[in-house]
Amino acid sequence: MVFVKTHDISELTSELIGKEVVLGGWIEDLRKLGKMSFITLRDVSGISQVIVKGELNDNLGEINRQSVVSVKGIVQETKARDFAFEIKAEEIDVLGKAIHPLPVDPIGRVESNIDTRLNHRALDMRNQKTASIFKLRHHVLQSLRKTLAEKKFIEITTPKIIGSASEGGANLFSLEYFGKKAYLAQSPQLYKEQMTIGLERVFEISNFYRAENSHTGRHLSEFTSIDIEAAFMDYNDVMDVLESLVMDVYKFTAENCKKEQEVIGHTIEVPKSPFEKVTYNQCIDELKSAGEKIEFGDDLLDSHLRIIGDNHPGFFFLTDWPMKLKPFYIREKDEDPELSRSFDLQYGYLELSSGGTRLHNPEMLKARLKEQDLDPAQFTDHLKAFDWGMPPHSGWGMGLDRLMTTLIGIDNVREVVLYPRDPDRLSP
RNA sequence: GGGGUAGUAGUUCAGUUGGUUAGAACGCCGGCCUGUCAAGCCGGAGGUCGCGGGUUCGAGUCCCGUCUAUCCCGCCA
Q: Which nucleotides of B are covered by protein (CB under 7 A)?
């Protein structure tokens, strides 16, 4: 069967009354009233009512909810309460049957558990709430790319299969690569830094991998990261970039995704700018006042971040971390070498982003590697670039999935990832 | 990795101190119905009560083990 849609459902208007249209979509609801039937037909753009009468109704045959059909018919006035007009069907073809019982209810009258929905994710995408989340995610990505391009960042794609697991920090997944051991990249960190020597400002939006056995609503083994790296910028400059990106995402989606917000049942509220900047030292003071036993140099536990998050609701930067808590590539502050030019972007207790000014002096970088018990020999390829005119540079990485959860006010990243991967879930 | 909670129909759930043939809602199938719109009315199908042991005259219910999910903590970003 070959057919051409003349309209998406959202393109139908009362002005088309009397005109013939061809639609394609899924039967969301079906009410047979003997000599006539009502079909609510949904495509990605919207929903409309189709009415079937006469001979066509008598020969309707096998037709059921969630099957995909093409409908040829005439737009006409309606008595329906929920629609401004309707389609009087002249021809209905079933293009693909839905076999019942279906494992989840796409209309959402009975809401399924996240586990059941994830096991049948494609069908879950006919649930308007789920679909709206991923439409929103699409708009977030659009907004990010637009803003970064305007700020003269060039989009790059770095390898996800890497030969050395030496960046430190998170555990990496390893795999067999033609007889050699390879790893899945945990971040584009080293590559994006290298790119600043020719492209100056780069960004990447890609999936990265962490082999941490984490069971929380904010950790996944595979997650989407937004990364930037910019030559001739200090950490304050890239904080500004980050802040305007977040602001733009909120403004853009608040403005352009009204329908999605309505379906999700959450109103996007544009945060106040500028974001507050709270230093690590200030956090330590706040935690001490709250009765926590903590000293300079201690890492902030989740329980600590909950306290800090309560003191500073919404977005804020947590800046100037001790050098000893930061990776080897982070640069110290000239006036206080114990402190680093670094920051996290927090949303309450939730860490969204981490970044800072990088070391660009190769000798200092090698010294820092040794300090952190890493072997400079493992970084030969990376360090080469630092002898070719490495500019001072800064950057950050931000978890897109976590950003999404702040945007729609939910607390589980699995809701905003199509097919989440965690220690217990590898399929579908 | 540690702890809490849960697992009963396709889905979401109820199921009393252990006691007849395990129920509801939505969905599904069949019948009636020319204005439905969470349609209505009538009828029907659908269950290895996660799995394996045990206690008992008798287990969805109690005990042990195991698997799975989920939430929290830890790790981590």
A: 1-3, 10-13, 25-29, 32-40, 68-77
pTM for the whole structure: 0.93
- CA–C1' nearest nucleotide, residue A412: B71
Residue A53: nearest nucleotide (C-alpha to C1'): B34
For residues A51-66, give the mean pLDDT. 88
Mean pLDDT of the A150-173 span: 87
Task: Provide, in whole angstroms, the distance separating residue A234's CA from nucleotide B58's C1'.
Answer: 77
Last residue of a domain, one of A96, A114, A148: A96
A188: its two tokens:
């584009």
Give the distance, in angstroms, between residue A364 CA and nucleotide B53 C1'.
Answer: 64
| Structural domains in chain A (count) | 2
CA of A263 to C1' of B51 (A): 40
* pLDDT value for A2: 60
For tokens 């680093």, the residue is A340
The tens digit of pLDDT for each residue in A102-131 reads: 999 888 788 898 999 999 999 999 999 999
Which nucleotide is at minimal CA–C1' distance from A399? B77
- pLDDT at residue A292 greater than cutoff 90: no
* Same structural domain, A305 and A219: yes
Q: Say whether both A195 and A329 belong to one domain.
A: yes
Residue A82 within a domain: yes
Can you give the distance from the CA of residue A37 to the C1' of nucleotide B38 in angstroms?
A: 17
Angstrom distance (rounded) from CA A408 to CA A74: 39
Query: What's the mean pLDDT in A155-173?
Result: 84
ipTM, two decimals, is 0.88
CA-based nearest residue to A227, from A248, A242, A209 = A242
pLDDT digits (tens, 9 = 90+) for A387-400: 999 999 999 999 99
Structural domain including A57 reads: 9-96
Same domain (yes/no): A160, A257: yes
Quote the tokens at residue A36. Answer: 């006539």
A208: buried, middle or exposed (CB in 10 Å: 19+, 13-18, 0-12)? buried
A126 lies in the same domain as A92? no
Look up the CATH number of the domain holding residue A363.
Answer: 3.30.930.10
A115 is a domain residue: no
3-state secondary structure of A128: helix
d(C-alpha A287, C-alpha A107), whole Å: 47
Are residues A75 and A199 part of one domain?
A: no
In a shared domain, residues A61 and A198: no
Reduce the DSSP state of residue A374 to 3 states and report it: coil
> In angstroms, how far is B14 C1' from A215 CA?
31
Query: CATH number, domain at A23?
Result: 2.40.50.140
Of all nucleotides, the one whose C1′ comes closest to residue A344's CA is B77
